[in-house]
Input
Amino acid sequence: MTSEQFLERTIRELAGSEAAVESRHGAGGGCINQCEVLELSGKRRIFIKRNRSSFSGLFAGEAAGLKTLNQPGAPRVPEVYGFHDDGKTQIIILEHIDTGAKEAGFWERFGAELAALHRTSADEGFGFVRDNHIGATEQPNEWRSTWLEFFAEKRIRFQLDLARKKGRADAGMVSRGERFIQRIPEILFEPERSSLLHGDLWGGNYMVDAQGGPVLIDPAVYYGHREADLAMTELFGGFGSRFLAAYHEAWPLEPGYEERRDAYNLYHMLNHLNLFGHSYASSVNAILSRYS
Output
């Protein structure tokens, strides 16, 4: 079955055997996917992402993440209608969410709902049921019993090794990165339990639905330390100060979060170095120097 045949079958399952696509138009979907909104018979809309099969498991990982994020009291996520990879192209079919203006108290609601999401834990420890992607980069999620080992090996060392292989980390960066990894037990601390994370929580990965509430999209889900999600909300901006205040009120952070924040964002700066090139080297080196 081709991806297009899978799409046709899913449309019939959603809207009936006589359903037809009445209109379609392109939509924004980040840097790597081709995205469309399809309007079906009866005015129902669905959101489609396509990509090459060379990004193996991209949409399978996204589907697993979105389904896992659908937790009571947590921010809304799009429903997954299906995904398919035919060996040439892959497709994911999602609920189309109409957008609107932020409701009064949007940031307070968002902060409290993210705290509720983070209270979801995994008995297995730190990781996820499968590997996935953060942007176009593979993200390994093999379970580890401790957060410090998981963050050191599956986040920082993985990205550092990738940067070295791509020729984007010189010997000095690699050396400083290895020293940072050795110092992780001094810089960070072991949480009592894991938290379910969005994993790529910057301002472009939430939206506002028609009722004015928050919606999480494009996740890179795993179970980790909740500070990793919060740190990224502060990396590129896009989240109001009331968001963090509401989160703290719902579930206060341990003292010293501000000192640990950049250590968590090193992962994302390394990923940006690997995705977008040497312009991010100075940001990586600045964080490594801070913790040297």
Notes: The two ends are 53 Å apart (CA to CA). The CA atoms of residues 77 and 168 lie 35 Å apart. The mean pLDDT is 95. The chain is about 40% helix and 20% strand.
